[in-house]
Every structure is written in structure tokens, then in C-alpha cells.
Amino acid sequence: MYSGAQFSIHAMSDDFIDVILGGVNALGTPNDLRIETDDISTLVTGSPRRVFQAMETAYGESCRRGGHVVLQAHISRGCPGEPDDPLCTPAADGGTGGASGERIDVAGVPRAGIPVRAQYSLYPLGIPDYMDVIADEIAAAKVAGVFDRSKHFCSKLHGDLSHVMAHVYNSFEHAAERAGHVVIQLTISKGSPSEVRS
Amino acid sequence: MYSGAQFSIHAMSDDFIDVILGGVNALGTPNDLRIETDDISTLVTGSPRRVFQAMETAYGESCRRGGHVVLQAHISRGCPGEPDDPLCTPAADGGTGGASGERIDVAGVPRAGIPVRAQYSLYPLGIPDYMDVIADEIAAAKVAGVFDRSKHFCSKLHGDLSHVMAHVYNSFEHAAERAGHVVIQLTISKGSPSEVRS
Asked: Which residues of B69-83 are buried (b: 16+ CB within 10 A; e: fewer)?
């Protein structure tokens, strides 16, 4: 299996270079991730759990430096067009590359201390009943306490950064039990001046 | 059919409010589009052609005001979870809501005068042979002269803003001939200091 994300951090500030690179550089050079940055996005390749951790680390660091900072992440696993990569398939799951079935207790995750608003779309590819998978994850967001409201093409979330990330990770893992190829588009925003509680 | 986009303009500047709202406000209040903005994105609902025109208008205006400005767009048509909307189905296509079959001659489109770099991912949902549809559009990007290179999970594009938009619109129309529900994730970047010709 190949899993990873292309993510971009957008800092609405004249100091955007320091805010963005401060976040990306916070990732360091861990052995269990491959990290490549170009002018549009940073690729992080590794197991789903580690990919989500890396995005939270980078974006969290940028949030602590900046004012209005947005994460745009395109997360994918099991795309038939990608090569298998052992880095993405930790031994803990038996090396199958399948979903762990793990569902993190979102409310129990330690808070990052960064309140965010977010929206995400989940796409299980290549299967006819993909809308059922999506509906299940919207229901799970409500149980997890991070659901804000439905929008066209996506679900809006809110809460602490770590809680939002934990829910989206859960969706990624659970959708993978029903579809080999799963994609998520995730936007997280902190510090928007037009933020309005809905 | 329901078609539209959730798009966000990110301006890497202390003046981000003026740059972003200048773009969004450039859309005005046309009769054939529905436009709703919240703290994360702007929804534009209408026919695919008009939705693409609106995004180009808004982002183009922001680019003319700003330095480094990014468009993130999540474009969707035919999602089974969305209500039908006559606004999205112009009479010209017989009211079927199907794809027009149109493929714009990208090189013949007048230039916006804004050189950009971009990346996009195309997802035809609910069909087993979706990878073939994606491969066809990568081939079309090469013919159109906007293909830069393949990246994990997406294709990188470059060229004038209007040419990049025309190619992505073509992909959206052509994928819809083979899948009822089509989603595109599009990132366009102008003025990045880390831009490197590849």
C-alpha cells in the first residue's frame, strides 16, 4: 500500500515564509516518513497514523507562529496508480496494508490548545456504495462532538485541532475497511477574522 | 444535477482581507450563480462552465492585487447526496444535466496574463474503471501543453491561468461522460517565492 498526503500551509501574513517553513521544518527528518516539499505542497509518505501526526505537528507549529493560518491537505491511501511502499505499512498491522480498524476516542485525545474550524470530504473510490461510507462518518463526527454542519460537497467541523485531526483519521481508517482506495480533502482554519459561530 | 465548487483564496500578505474579498466581490450577483461565503470557503453553484468562469474571475482579481496568492478549489457535480438544481443545468444541454462533451481548445483560449503553477486530482466516483478516466485526462494535459509532471496523488500543471482553468474544465466535462459523480481538487499558485521551473 502507498499512503500519504500532499499538504500546504497558507499563512495570511507578510511573514508567511517563516510561518510556513517553521511548520514544515518542525517535522525534522524522521526515519519512518518521507518528506518532499516543492512550491505548491509538501508530500509526506508513511503509515496513515504517522502522516496525520506529521500534518498536525507542522500545522500546529505554524499556528503558534502566525495569525490566520490554513492547512489544505489532500490525503490518500491505496491508489492503484501508486507503488507499494513498506514505509506505509507498519509491521503492527501484519504488513497487509489494510485498515487497522482503529477508532480513536476523539474526546479522550489530549488537546493541542488550538481551536480550529475545518471542513472535509471523504471519497472511497471504485465502489458503488461509497455514499453509505460517507454517511457513517458524518454520523461518527456528531458522536465525536466535532460536527458543525453539512455544507455542499463537505462537512464542516470545529473543535480543538487534535480532536478534529483524530476524527478525520478515524474516517480515513474506517473507510479503508470498505474501499481499497480512499481520499480525503481537508481544510483547517485558525484565526480567521470572519469566523462566526454557527 | 447539482454542480458547483467550494473555493478558498489564500493571500500571503498582511492585506489578505482586501486581496481575498476583492476577488470574491468581483463576482457580483449574477442571476445564473448562487454564491455563499463563510469563514472557510465560498460556495458557487451553477453550470460547470459558469462555475469555472467565476473561480477564474475571483482568483484573477485577487492575483492582480496580491503577491503570493493561492486558490484551493473543491469542484463537484452529480453528487447523489445533493438536490437537483435547474441553475446547474442550462437549457443548452437539453436539461439532462449530462456532460456537454465539450473540449475547449486550450491553446486557443485568450490568456489572462497571469502565469501560474497548479496541481489537480480528478475523481470519478462509483465506477470501477475510474483510473482509466484519470489516465485519459493526464494524456490530454500533455496535448494541451499545461502538463508539468506527475506527483503522488495529483498532476502538476503550469501555464497561463486561463489555459490551466480550461484544461481542468475539460477534465471535469469529459469525466462526467463516464461517471455521474465527479470531483476535482485543484490548487493554483501565483507568485510563490519558492517557485522553481522543473
From this structure: bbbbbbbbbbbeebe
B58: cell is 475571483
Residue B188: partners with Cβ closer than 8 Å, 6 or more residues away? B59, B70, B71, B73, B116, B117, B118, B161, B164
Report chain B residues whose CB lies below 8 A from the CB of A79. 153
Q: Which residues of B touch A156 (CB under 8 A)?
A: 40
Cell numbers placing B135:
489516465
Sign (positive/negative) of CA torsion A109, A114, A119, A125? negative
d(CA B59, CA B24): 8
The ipTM (two decimal places) reads 0.94
Residue A123 pLDDT > 70: yes
Closest Cα partner for B175 from B108, B113, B114, B121? B121
CA distance A70 to A118: 9
B-facing residues of A in 127-146 (CB < 8 A) are: 127-128, 130-131, 134
- CA torsion sign for A21, A27, A30, A33 is negative
pLDDT digits (tens, 9 = 90+) for A129-159: 999 999 999 999 999 999 999 999 999 999 9
Instruction: Find all residues with CB under 8 Å of B17, minimum gap 6, and list them.
Output: A193
